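User: hey, got a sec? need Fatty acid hydroxylase domain-containing protein folded
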Amino acid sequence: MSNFTDTSTFSPAPSCALHPRSPLLSGMSDHTLGVILPTLVYIIGSVVFYIVNELELFSSYRIHPPKEELHRNRVSKLGCLLVVIRYHVMQIVIGILLTYNNEPELVEIGGCETYQWVRRVRKCLTVIPWALTLLGLDTQGLISKFGKTPLLSHISANSYEISSSPTFTAMEWNLARIIVSFAIPAIQFFVYLAIVDTWIYFAHRLCHINKTLYRIVHAQHHQLYVPYAYGAVYAHWLETLFMDILSFTLANAISGISVRQGMIVTSLATLKTISDHCNFVFPWDPFGYINGNNAAFHDLHHQSWGLKYNYSTYTVFWDKFFGTEWTDTTGADMRYARTRELVKARRETDEVTIVHPKAA
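Assistant: Yep! Here you go:
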């Protein structure tokens, strides 16, 4: 295995011909799989949480008591399910229309992209002696202090000249491979996340600021004061189109991610949405570990007293930036407790009414 101090290796320029990528599943294009995969993930995740909820498992991690949704939610589970089905039908139909004529994704075989990047790495390294000099540092002194390697020797001599068939060090190749395999996909992922998170934050907040938008469009989603997993995308069709589908379509186009990267990103986004509405806060929830945007964060937004807070879906960046993050945990606990007391009193009143109905 090569290491960073290996001697230089000669490599001619590889062929940069592009070839169609073979599909992951025989008989189905990657484009089609990428369209239906989020729905499959949604179904599986929702079924898992439905079973957990019905069997009353992990009760200590539950946000709302089992019976609370019967007294607080403004839509039946069947009504919610029908809207959720409509959401996924819209998502699949639009996805198929957008990818209908797309040819298989083209990929290079033979390391052409890595070769292009190793040349860029070489060019960047030629700047190092000049940068060190501008900073007032002694290149030869650094080499003497930290050890003389082939790479440092070349830097010191400023001998990096690009030719049609250059000789590159193992370190240059390793840096190029890291850039191609990890750095570029990571940048694409964060660009994608930033676009979706920004779009949804401002669109979501607008739906709460504008009373007409809230009343006609977004109020439907807030009929679930006690969310549950399969109701995560229960929303007006306009919200489905302009907040969810449009944000992901733009992010996909701008970030330049591949079809298979898109499968991973949309699957994770689907799991995050289900997790936000599952009514459980698990200590091992990976989304909570990343930035605190978990089920507890989003459930607070579903309460009547938390509607003007916690608009973000994937990060807490914009909520922190604009001061719309709910930070009073003690106050939230008191309000949750008060809500449980009111629901309990209402339930007891209903039971008394059933047992002792008023005389006609």
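Quick note: The chain has two domains: 58-104+184-353, 110-168. Let me know if you need anything else on Fatty acid hydroxylase domain-containing protein.
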